[in-house]
Structures are given as C-alpha cells and as structure tokens.
Design goal:
The protein is mainly alpha-helical and 66 residues long. The protein has two helices and no strands. Keywords: Membrane, Transmembrane, Transmembrane helix.
Amino acid sequence: MQRRPTPPATATTTGPDPHESGTAARLLALLHRHRCTAAAQLLRGLCYGVGTGLTGLASWWLQQHL
C-alpha cells in the first residue's frame, strides 16, 4: 500500500472556529477587524451625547434665569 504525499499548505488561513471560542472572543475579533468604524461610531456617539447634555444644561439655565 502506497502512502499519499501530504497536500501542500493553502495560502489562506482561517480564524478560530466561532463555536469554540466564547462570545467575548468573537466580539474582540469583530472589533479588531472593524476598529476604525467602531472608533468613528464611538466618537459620533460621544459628540451627540455631549451636544445633548449641553443643550439640556443651556435650556435649564435659561428657564432658571428668565
């Protein structure tokens, strides 16, 4: 019986099986792949939150002083 030669390694590699790793590991892998988009969305949310807070403070201040 002859042995078959080992197949050549493929050029692409696959990541870890998502079913084997936990939810946190999958989330970290997703954030690593999309870190630029995640950072932009975080900055956008922060700006919206600061703007809403300042608007609320300004309205409260105007109501107290008028």
